[in-house]
## 1
Amino acid sequence: MTGRGTDLASQTSAGSLRIELHQFEARRRDGIESAFLAMGKGRIDAVVIQEDAFLTANNPAIADLAREKRLPSAGSKRFAEAGGQIGYGPNGPDMARRAAYFVDRLLKGARPGDLPVERPTKFDLIINRRTAKALGLTIPPSLVLRADQVIE
């Protein structure tokens, strides 16, 4: 589910895994329920919530609908904390430390154009076992062991 168009990385990844990707957009609160109704008609097997300000603000409602429709769900860390099944994304404190490093360099006179562009290097995996149990799903022990946080 997206607030805007699906990104190219998602489309490329789905294609390489031979997964059929369907996009359901929601830009208003009533659009979330409509998207889930369409997912039900389309026999969707799982839902991935892309991070976007509107969807993040509505994480609890989206997580509730995913559980109600018995759809495995994944999204950001905040999505898992709001009741979604899995959360995965860049580690916030690590990104803040890197940002502080760049601010320090700029304050010491570095030119912005001379600083490298960095991608996140540390990611967090959050598993909501309570939601998985409600859906009748078992999370493999190997995945639970790799999780940074498990919500019981």
## 2
Amino acid sequence: MQDSEGETVPATQTEQTQHYLRQFLQESAPLLLGIIRSYIVRMGMAQGAAVQSLATEVLHDAALEALAHADRLNSSTQPRAWFLVIATNILKRKRDEAIKQARREILISDLHFTPDAPGESEFFDSLIHYAQPGPEGAFEENEQVREMLALVAPADQKVLRLALVHDLDTRSVARALGITPGTARVRLHRAINRLRQAWGRHEQQEKEQEG
């Protein structure tokens, strides 16, 4: 490295490690890509051409993450093993996100949303967003959610927490409540509907008070 006056400045340990990692990634990219592809297949995350696409995406994301945290690479640690741990963690995060998304889509289809209920799916999207755990990992610490659930009866709060907080599908909600899946779908649908209506009234009141 050179400073503004053209004099050579010793590279920091992190910079040296980043340079080493870049060289390693350039030389080992095909091998790493092949290993990541095998992980994807074993985890059942993709098939066919989608495997290569996902593997390339994970390789890129893992490279960025590795370079950003180069200071964590111990000199006694093999870079390939360290890099593959990062790639595996990225794959696990993607798999968990896909599972949550699939459960959410199943839940929405179970509730039979229709155009006759304008704004219902948008409200559900908003509720799902608020229900995601924050940095503290505590759903109940989300003031927005507490305020929303306080607008409905305890029975509605219970079924909403099971579906949204604990991320249960309607069959699991049914088991937790000791009722049939069909009854669970109806209760959840009605609870979301009542919450949506109550929240709409609440927001309208706030607008009127502000006006």
## 3
Amino acid sequence: MSIDGARWYVCESHFGREDLVLENLERQGFNSYLPLQLFNRVKKGQPDRSTSRPFFPGYVFTQVDLAIDRWRAIYSTRGVKAVLGSRERPTAVPERFIADIRAAEIEGFIRLMPATPDCRFKSGDCVTYKGFLQAIFCERVDARRCSILIELLGKTSRATVDITALS
């Protein structure tokens, strides 16, 4: 298939069939792309497992030159539910969109870096939780959460809370 005048289009897949769509489009000679991301599966009592999932569930991108390629074959590709746009002329995705997605890939997976809130507290600092509860800051747990000691009804408890809820 041609790449020179080709543009990217979005194929909607049947539920959970993105891999099938990707495989069948590539088998027909279409340059296709399924962005993936990693998820950590955590089940109580079992070791953590990483699994991949589509970054855009239900969608696969394919590169087609409408003037040259047999693009209408995409509609009858096994697993394809629709192509975004009209049947006469699908709607192209800007090249920059695909380039930005690919730029976010690390080792074949999309990795979005979460925004890390600033944490100005140190262990032992007195803080206010949700604007009215007094607590003691213990430590940062991860990028967004921290551990605090809070006293309620005469009992001190340790809680993990969102850093942005502290002042």
